[in-house]
Amino acid sequence: MSLGIVLPLVAFLLVYLIGYSKTPFGEFLEFAFVIRALSKILCLCVIPNLAVFYFFLNREYWYTTRGVITATLLCALAVLVVKFI
């Protein structure tokens, strides 16, 4: 489950570093929240979990696969919270 939580965070930091590294992180979060793009960015950051899910599924690591699904659902819950605030 920890890999399923860490990968979206790393992806989010990569989005920030690649696209918005000249602005402070707090301003980036505020700007993304104001223009209602934060939920969209968070959704895109969950995509690496798909690759990890299929990797562990093909290796038949069922409990690890279940952990990745749980982490993805937690990220989806976070997206819903951000979207409707």
Describe the structure.
By secondary structure, the protein is an all-alpha fold. The chain has one domain (about 1-85). The chain is about 80% helix and about 0% strand. The chain contains five helices and no strands. The chain has helices spanning about 1-20, 25-35, 40-45, 45-60, 60-85. Helix 1 (about 1-20) packs across helix 3. The longest helix is centred in the C-terminal third of the chain and has 22 residues, at about 60-85. The chain is elongated and about 40 Å long. The relative contact order is 0.19. The model has no long low-confidence stretch (mean pLDDT about 95).
Order of helices and strands: HHHHH
Portion of residues within helices: over 70%
How would you sum up the global shape?
A: elongated
Strand fraction band?
under 5%
Task: Please give the count of helices.
Answer: 5
Features:
mainly alpha; 82% helix; 0% strand; elongated
Compact description:
This protein has 85 residues and is mainly alpha-helical. The protein has helices spanning 2-19, 25-34, 38-45, 47-58, 62-83. The protein has one domain (2-83).
